[in-house]
Amino acid sequence: MAITANLVKDLREKTGAGMMDCKAALNETGGDMEAAVDWLRAKGLAKAAKKAGRVAAEGLIGLGAEAKEAALVEVNSETDFVARNQAFQDMARAISQAALKAKGDLDALGAAKFPGGSGTVADTIKAMIGSIGENMSLRRTAYLSAKEGAVVSYMHNTLASGLGKIGVIVALESKGDVEKVKAFGKQVAMHIAAANPQAIDADSLDKALIERERAVLIEQAKESGKPAPVIEKMVEGRLRKFFEEVVLLSQAFVHDPETTVAKALAAAEKEAGAPIKITGFHRFALGEGIDRPESDFAAEVAAAASGS
Questions:
Q1: Within a domain: 41
Q2: pLDDT of residue 231
Q3: Of the candidates 216, 250, 290, 306, which lies 20 to 30 Å from 111 by C-alpha distance?
């Protein structure tokens, strides 16, 4: 029997499995739809697909790190209970190591061979969904490297080695004392975890974000009824305050709030004996930006009691 596009489409709609998985199932079963459904169920693929609509906002941030490179991943699950499962943690840790070779490319990471396994990272996640029974996803990844200097990492709310709730990596280029550079880098990574800056400096900040903030500040300043030249100065002053809140080098250093990160950097350069440039950073906080449906616990209990 010919395996047509419509047949593949029908199986996909019936099971929710991936297009290529549906095609493989139909090829294996000679185009028999029911047998193909059973084939997908046996492989755990249909079961995984049925759970794909459920919100996965828990899970783990994973870290893979070498001497001068590091990668972060976010692997999500539906519940924190699963995040504490040893098998899930082992999977997240292995994916973090594979992320070093993917260098920030999420598609490449999904298609990469799972360390120590026979399938890909994406295949392994599907199999884990079928095994544990929760929706899971590989949400994002990031990568940094340094030619000279170091890439330093920090994990907050650590659940296991290299796994936690907030992960930070920072790249610092310097020809100075490597240990001094690393020590300062660790402080910066901890600062980033706490202060959540949006960019290294004002020039690196999203121009659209600046313009939106400027527009808001202009409207606020107009409320004062003062002349345009005065309003312009008010806006520029408030914009500088905004930069102090969201720009890394302008922020008050969490380890010494009396100074800025820029001043702390200058002091670290003297310690290291050479200039230090922070060339990049990434901060992953578990579940940030994911819409979590609000549940009405009383309504859920009432529905369970009525059998609906």
A1: yes
A2: 83
A3: 290
CB 170 within 8 A of CB 158: no
Chain centre distance of CA 268: 29
Query: Among residues 78, 108, 79, which one has the least CA distance to residue 95?
Result: 108
For residue 254, give both structure tokens. 């969490």
Of 98, 117, 118, the closest CA to residue 108 belongs to 98
Render pLDDT for 63-113 as a digit per residue (tens, 0 to 9): 999 879 999 999 999 888 999 999 999 999 999 999 999 999 999 999 999
Residues of the chain under the 50 pLDDT cut: 295, 297, 300, 304, 308
Tokens at residue 91, please?
């999977």
Contact 31, 8 (CB under 8 A): no
Residue 84 lies in a domain: yes
Whether the Cβ atoms of residue 293 and residue 55 lie closer than 8 Å to each other: yes
Q: Kindly state the tokens that stand for 35.
A: 């047998």
Coil, helix or strand at residue 171: strand
Structural domain span for residue 218: 207-239
Distance of CA 84 to the CA centre of its chain: 18
Environment class of 7 (CB within 10 Å of its CB; exposed 0-12, middle 13-18, buried 19+) = middle
Query: What would the two tokens of residue 125 be?
Result: 């996640």
**Tell me, what DSSP letter sits at residue 75?**
E
171 and 65 both lie in a single domain: yes
pTM of the model: 0.75
* Rounded CA separation 26/57 (Å): 33
